[in-house]
Write a structure and sequence with these properties.
Chain lengths: 279, 318
Amino acid sequence: MDAVEAALDAGADAVYVGLAGWSRGGARGEVTWDELVAAQRAVIAAGRELHVAINTIPKPRQRARLFECIPPLLDLGVRDVIVNDVGILSALRKRFPELRLTASIGCGAQTVADVAFFRDLGAHAVVLPGTVGPDELREIRTIRGITIEVMLHMAEEFVLLGKCWMPSYVHLKPTEVRQTGSMKRGGVGACFRICQQPWELFDGERHVDTRRFPSRQISRIGDVDAYAEAGVDVLKLQGRSLPPDLLASLVRRYRKAIDARTPIAETAALPPMWTVVGR
Amino acid sequence: MSSGYELNTTIANLRDLRQSDLRDYDAVYLGDIYCRLYEANFLERPNDLKEGLRILREQGKRAYVATYAAPRNDFLPKVRKMLAAAAEGGAEAVEVLNFGVVRIAHEEFPRLPLHIGGFANVYTAAGVEVLRDLGAVRFTPNYELSLDEINEITGECGAAMELLIHGKMPLGVSDYCFLLDYEEKWGVKCPDLCQKDLFLKQGDWAMKTVGKGILSGKDVCMLEHLPRLLAEGHRHFRVETLSESPAYRREVAAVYRAALDRAFAGDDLVDSEWAETLFRHAHVGLCNGFYFGKSGMDYAGIRPEAMGSLLTVARVES
């Protein structure tokens, strides 16, 4: 809740929160129902929007429980829900036509054809990674009838988001609460950064190197204007893992860049806690 | 499927296709799904693709065409060209691993049946229904689903599933190839880099890298569990050999052809020679992937007390 308030104070137009039990971020980044109610009050008071992440991929038996979460959300005035699976998106679309559904970055959309697919499926919005540049976005923007969000500030791991089940391959401890599987499905195979640990590279039997998978912190504040000109609707910042004070600082920087609509040079050295290494 | 089931595999280029003895396969997917620069990738060479389709037809095999797992905008003209080549060349289906490509195939090549690959992330029966409406007829569920979860999906929607029964399981795909870091150091250029047998290891953990793709280090092995798979109604099985030698492709298929024929006839015995063949080709070991709801590296035998069961062999070897 502190993070929600920090983001609003710093100038965010909308905030995504993970609903407890249904967010792929796991317990660390989720809000309880009471916190959700408080967050919705806060955004209404600020004249902003609350988006709720229901982005695990539940098993059939649990899906009915997920659907039961939706009417109370609508009663609360929340219409924007972000999901992580085409089947869940389609089912929610049919069952709750009043919802505005966002296909999350974990859905893997990167191309003009992907965005058209999600538009046809009934998505209100789709999130693209910050690896999709303004030139690509210009072509993607030829698809009308869907809101396009780009996550300009994010950690880019070696494996594409939503296409990685390395952690659960090597290590998995199912619990009563969390199902088996990767971070994509909200499982116990949640990312424990195995790609950021040193691996020994072997060519056959011969040891040839010790290395980490490549990764980088994307922070395209210098491209805000180019994205705006290319037709982006929403600029999204990955803030889930940041403490409130750093989140506020990050949002404030982007708010300033958006309002100024003039390029701000990308800072070469980001504060450590904003980077992949610091997460 | 004259045998009542289909055993298939993947081959990336014409050279590998010509060097492979495919007698024990019913069908082949053509093309490397990870990288446009893969050596002589079928997915970049329409004439090679048509020739590959012709060769497979001549051998009496069903011929399928793969597509890229993670395309960007600039891939799409080539994807369209290859879908056209697949249609002209008589491909019996196209494997699609990306939603945008599903849409393109459905709109522009509506007569091509679609097989949905594991990277498309089919986790639910509702997801199957979405893709069925767009021409999908067969589905490889996301690799991290257990057999029980897969059966829940088939129970709900009756979809034809294709299961990886042997070989290295895809674990991830990237936009980048970190092997390029080694071009200078090793004096080996792309596209030869990813032809090397490269493994990433950390203690007991191991994964194989093919540049933009990460695969399980251990070979998924469902040899002992074929009777269960058949009893549960599965009929489409893949031996993943994209990054393997022609000898692996031939010998592993021979094992599974014999084992499936036997299981199909109601006999669930596993010959010890079969296990020896599979162990010989599995440099890091065997696993069951996620089929039993555990870590993908685990291996579960069904008859640990029986001589010849893979678990018994594994214990002896360790």
